[in-house]
Amino acid sequence: MARDSEDTKRRIFDAATVEFADRGVAGARIDRIAATARANKQLIYAYFGSKRELFEEVVSTHVCRYVEEVPFDADRLPEYAGAAFDYFTKHPEIAHLGSWHALEPEEAEHRIPAIEQAIRTRTRLVARAQRAGRVDGSIAAEELLALVNTFARTWAVATPERSLLRGSGARSIARRRAAVVEAARRLVAPKL
Amino acid sequence: MARDSEDTKRRIFDAATVEFADRGVAGARIDRIAATARANKQLIYAYFGSKRELFEEVVSTHVCRYVEEVPFDADRLPEYAGAAFDYFTKHPEIAHLGSWHALEPEEAEHRIPAIEQAIRTRTRLVARAQRAGRVDGSIAAEELLALVNTFARTWAVATPERSLLRGSGARSIARRRAAVVEAARRLVAPKL
């Protein structure tokens, strides 16, 4: 029984990830998540609460996975940027979840603790590396972190004009990855 | 009469800009645009066609305004990045329109000619400045342009955790602007 309920929860979670990544919070439908997950709609509410709570659970879990799978090292921001680029290239739906969270107006009221925590910790680590002279201090820590994270996602959530311009073949991806790593390297290099 | 119809069109356009910036294409309602614009719903269809066509008209017009008001100069990318930052700080709704266009799945089918045109022209200008040695060539022209444009919008469409962390006061904006200009400067500087 416990095994079955874990399976069901996982199916709901996976279906909710796809539904929210495609349609955001306002556009997502619990009916559709239930159908995709082959789960009872009432069971979704029982396990996860409201649609809003389900979204928050989905985002928080993906933030934690990201933090675990893309280790952050303030002394190696170019390598981090490359690994983040790889992660979002492989999982564009995770970048999409973050974009909905940034874009939908109701989201302004809903800060997600896992994201706040990651930003605070990483900003502190970057600032420390800057004080120790291992990272250039020309760009303040919080802004430096925001820029590096932003460019790692540049092509994971891109307008169709940009993503279709030169396709999504292996050469395009390699060129984009090189650009992201080089850009991060330039941002942390000793003052020019 | 012509004057009245121009006024009505402008009110519809302004109301549509707000509605699409807040809710995207799928979430936008022509009823709401009509109410805000104090215009007849049928008149909106007569002037602009479908909701999708209205969105495209709104985005294209804003792209043309942006191109005019934020002059692009491949030899002065840091200054361009600063001006673009200022524009999106003053008009976050324009950055939001672009994000919806990148995010909504149906958008993949709809390339907007004004955007394609701007990307093609600017990529060519950056490549030329690189060949002439006025812009460093370590990052390919298309990727360099994408990164600079991305930075300029980093805080105009930010998750609530990031935008609330240190508020939106004049000091935060100045620090972010300085970061964007310095980042662009570093991306175009002669190879380190």
Outline the low-pLDDT stretches of chain A.
Answer: none
Specify the number of helices of chain A. 10
Q: What's the story with the biggest beta sheet of chain A?
A: none
Q: What is the CA–CA distance across the termini of chain A? A: 63 Å
User: How large is the share of residues in beta strands of chain A?
Assistant: under 5%
Global Rg of chain A: 19 Å
Query: SS-based structural class of chain A?
Result: mainly alpha
DSSP strand tally of chain A: 0
Q: Portion of residues in helices of chain A?
A: over 70%
Which series of helices and strands of chain A comes N to C?
HHHHHHHHHH
Shape of chain A: elongated
State the largest interface. A-B, 57 and 57 residues
In round numbers, the mean pLDDT of chain A is 93
